[in-house]
Amino acid sequence: MEGVTEVCERARRAAAAVARSSGEQRDAALEGMAGALIASREEVLEANGADVSAAAGRGESRTVVDRLTLTEARLESMGTALEAVAAQPDPVGEVVEEWTRPSGLTIQRVRAPLGVVAVIYEARPNVTTDVAGLCLKAGNACILRGSSIAHRSNNAVATALRRGLEAAGYPADAVQLVGDTSRAAALELMRSQGSIDLLVPRGGRALIESIEQNATVPYIIDGDGNCHVYVDAAAEPAMARRIVLNAKTQRPSVCNAAETLLVHKRLASDWLRGCLEDLAAAGVEVRGDDRAKKAYSAALDASEEDWATEYLDLVIAVRVVDSIDEAIQHINRYGTSNAEAIVTQDGDAAARFVREVDSGSVFVNASTRFSDGGEFGFGAEIGISTQKLHARGPMGARELTSIKSVVWGSGQVKE
């Protein structure tokens, strides 16, 4: 099995070739990768079936199994995502701003590729295509290190993508999957200074903590998704119920699903009871504070731990608040800067929420489930940044570039 060092060396060589190519060439390669993936659907689904069976046999949670599972529809959406990335504007060479100095020098701030981007991820085979496509679009090579639970699936997907790259005249090493799924290999990747320009972890708290403790390469944290929906006193009742139900139940195993419902005290009777009955009918376990339990007696007691928990399951914590101030304070204490939502018809309340909630994405009268690169129009996402430097929120191809200064002169020298 090839070591991390060798993979990194090949990635750097491939990155130089990718960076030299034009946007049109990279888009053609992305289309080729999409075609190769769909042409390999039988091999990919067979490999995924083996991974899913093994995971189920080990008693993995339904959340893990759902994230791992590929269907014909999900595979088609992976190919569609690559095509959508190809259709995006080319970020490489984009002039972000330009100005002329009294000296006559014209200064431009221009987007340029990062070089080699590595992603460590868990049971999400679709991440393989998302990362490969976005990295190529931004002129980068990528190194993929998935988990052992999805290794057959990831290998089948990466093999198809590499086939599409080669057919388009690119080095297959622009997309590489690390075969060693051990912790030692992950640690080596985290410490590959000089070889990796950006590392993005996409996994649970244990992975994030390992990155924070061990990484010596630049990284962006794609952290937990303890997301909230706050239903304000001025919410339109039917709209609020639809948004809450969607945010919690549409796909509870993903990081932008709502985990906590905050409700203004004015709605803490009939409306709250009906909303929680809707959630319970959809299979959601409700855990509430004393006032929520008064409205819905079937709710279990919510503990302090519940307010800080990302369930990734059909469970929701519910709290009744006295004001928007209390809702904002709760979110800023327990939220993870992924996605927060307010439902209200009060423009002033919406403006306060947007201004004061500390999160990468804030939604007004919309579900948190839209916190996603594809939904934002990026085609796909490399992750959702829950930090403030160098990017925040869903990250597309533009977030996989750096800015360099290009200065145009006509013979100027500094006196």
Can you describe what's shown?
The longest helix has 17 residues, at 4-20. The chain has two domains: 4-223, Aldehyde Dehydrogenase, Chain A, domain 1 (3-Layer(aba) Sandwich); 227-370, Aldehyde Dehydrogenase, Chain A, domain 2 (3-Layer(aba) Sandwich), CATH 3.40.309. A seven-stranded parallel beta sheet has the order 10-9-11-8-7-12-13, sandwiched between helices. A four-stranded parallel beta sheet has the order 5-4-3-6, sandwiched between helices. The mean pLDDT is 96. The chain has 15 helices and 16 strands. It has helices at 4-20, 23-39, 41-57, 62-68, 72-87, 126-137, 151-167, 183-190, 205-214, 237-249, 270-281, 290-295, 304-307, 324-334, 347-356; strands spanning 95-100, 106-113, 116-121, 141-145, 175-177, 198-202, 227-231, 258-264, 285-288, 300-301, 315-321, 340-343, 362-364, 383-385, 393-395, 401-408. With 415 residues, the chain is α/β, with parallel strands linked by helices.
CATH topology of the largest domain: Aldehyde Dehydrogenase, Chain A, domain 1
Tally of discrete structural domains: 2
The level of helicity is: 40-55%
CATH architecture of the largest domain: 3-Layer(aba) Sandwich
- The strand line-up of the biggest sheet is 10-9-11-8-7-12-13
Shape annotation: globular
Work out the radius of gyration: 23 Å
Tell me the structural class.
alpha/beta
